[in-house]
Design goal:
Low-confidence stretches: 1-41
Number of helices: 12
Number of strands: 18
Strand order of the largest sheet: 1-11-12-13-16-10-9-4
RNA sequence: GGAGAGGUGGCCGAGCGGUCUAAGGCGCUUGAUUCGAAAUCAAGUGUGGGGCGACUCACCGUGGGUUCGAAUCCCACCCUCUCCGCCA
């Protein structure tokens, strides 16, 4: 029997004596793409068990779902499993007899002819099964995560409740400039040449501008690793398709990614992808959780649906830098971890002395994979607006199911899915925007926030 | 990029067409022994699917093929190691 059921594709046998999940040394789980494919994003058993409740919870996102096809496919799937198992069982019994039988005997020959037919039935059964799985997958892969019960109802961003406000808008006795103007005037940002050497939405940082970006990255990583307990990761900036599926970007959002078709690789849209997938196909010992990582990476996004939006400046680039926080927790712990992680991101803004607010994304504004999301919006005087600078989400078991990231609950017989979380801590490009616009002076120069001074090589002002 | 070797359970490692429901060792868990421990002895110890359950099915890098039957044979691919070349 060639084709195992989809979940049986996993070969992770990682029972670890150590406290950390680890890939097997020579295992192919790292390299193979197929294992993590064909995994539902939502638990089909949960859906089948109570489709009404499931549909009602999903409806909070604003779009109705029709589960009839899916449920019918699931019934068909079970039938095929039962039939296939039965056929295989009978066949292996027959083969047991054949082992013992005289290979020249009529009995043997008759068995062989019979089994030749059974083998064909099994193969047909498997083909059907594969087709059913593929069809189910198509449904499941496109179903977004269930919103957390605590997520506020609402249709769009306008309905996101503001949970807290920190600091206040700076007052200027002059008209504050936009970061584009400041960056160009002070020789920090070169938008024109970015466009020349690459294209629209690419920018060159220069001199103290480049230094500021680097200082922010270091400051953020130092704070998260030194004070918030994160382990620093520097991941690959190219990932395979299995990783993109693991965190939920693929297959639905292929349009948003830069693909290297020839090599089957994708430029990371966020460090969330490589870092969460570090533990794809792995099982944690419960004592190892929670696991917290902080990772710097550039982020590459095609911004497919954003034509004409934020065309000026650093706000919306095809490449930007980000420090990302990623956590793996037990289900009981993820809500607490979500608050903590968001607090860690906020602490960067507070230390930089930037005014911001935290909003609770309503069900209609929630991302595809997220169950609950807090956005941090920083005040930008040059835009006269709050702009998202961090997005902190709890995915609950959505990504974990997809990426097969499990743990061994204390005393339990079966392994369970972990919860994954992540958040920007922070988007560096937008932080540069915030620093430039909030710290600008009447003389056109920009003061460097105190916490960054140790990273700026003696500079106290830009310009 | 060229040449060679190899991918088997938490780890090491045997197996090379049918008692593989994968030998053996190490590790781990539990029990016996002990005042306690070490040593020793015994049992257990992968992942996932289906079933209320008894139970059953799949998985030996991945995919495909041959066969009544594949960890074992054939093909393709991926990855690892060694040497050479190139290179930050």
């Amino acid at each position: 029997m060639g084709r195992p059921r989809p979940t049986a594709r996993r070969t992770s046998r990682s029972r670890q004596p150590a406290t950390r999940a680890r890939p097997r040394k020579r295992s192919s789980t790292i390299s193979t793409v197929r294992k993590s494919e064909l995994r539902p994003m939502l638990d089909i058993r949960l859906i089948a068990h109570d489709p009404e409740t499931f549909a009602r919870r999903l409806l909070r996102r604003g779009k109705g779902v029709d589960l009839e096809d899916l449920l019918a496919l699931d019934r068909r799937r079970r039938e095929l499993i039962a039939r296939g198992d039965e056929l295989r069982h009978d066949k292996s019994k027959a083969e047991e007899a054949m082992r013992a039988a005289d290979k020249q005997s009529d009995v043997f020959t008759r068995f062989r002819e019979e089994m030749r037919v059974v083998a064909l039935s099994i193969r047909a059964c498997e083909t059907d099964f594969e087709a059913v799985l593929a069809a189910m997958d198509e449904h499941l892969m496109l179903l977004p995560n269930l919103p957390d019960d605590a997520a506020p109802d609402g249709a769009s961003a306008e309905q996101n409740p503001i949970l807290r406000v920190v600091g206040q808008k700076p007052s200027f006795d002059f008209t504050p400039k936009d970061h584009t103007e400041l960056g160009e005037a002070l020789g920090l940002l070169d938008f024109e040449r970015g466009t020349k050497i690459t294209g629209a939405r690419f920018t060159v940082y220069r001199g103290a501008g480049a230094r500021l970006e680097r200082a922010l990255i270091s400051f953020m990583l130092d704070t998260h690793t030194g004070e918030h307990g994160y382990t620093e990761i520097l991941p690959p900036f190219l990932v395979n398709h299995a990783s993109m599926r693991g965190t939920g970007q693929f297959p639905k959002f292929q349009e948003d990614a830069f693909l290297l078709e020839r090599d089957g690789l994708v430029l990371v849209p966020t460090a969330e992808v490589p870092v969460t997938n570090l533990h794809r196909d792995e099982i944690f010992e419960p004592s190892a959780l929670p696991v917290a990582y902080a990772a710097y990476s550039p982020c590459f996004r095609r911004e497919a649906g954003a034509h004409g939006r934020d065309t000026k400046g650093l706000i919306r680039q095809h490449q930007f830098q980000k420090v990302e926080l990623v956590m793996f927790t037990t289900p009981e712990d993820s809500e607490r971890a979500h608050e903590a992680l968001t607090g860690h991101a906020e602490s960067i803004l507070e230390r930089l002395g930037l005014h911001f607010r935290r909003v609770d994304l309503c069900t209609g504004d929630l991302g595809f994979s997220a169950a609950r999301t807090y956005d941090l919006e920083v005040w930008l005087p040059g835009q006269n607006a709050y702009r998202e600078i961090s997005s902190c989400s709890n995915f609950r078991d959505f990504q974990a199911r997809r990426a097969a990231i499990r743990y061994r609950p204390e005393g339990a017989k079966k392994n369970a899915l972990v919860h994954t979380l992540n958040g920007s801590g922070l988007a560096v490009g937008r932080t540069v925007v915030a620093v430039l616009e909030n710290y600008q002076q009447a003389d056109g120069r920009v003061r460097i926030p105190e916490v960054l001074l140790p990273y700026m090589g003696g500079l106290t002002h830009l310009g």
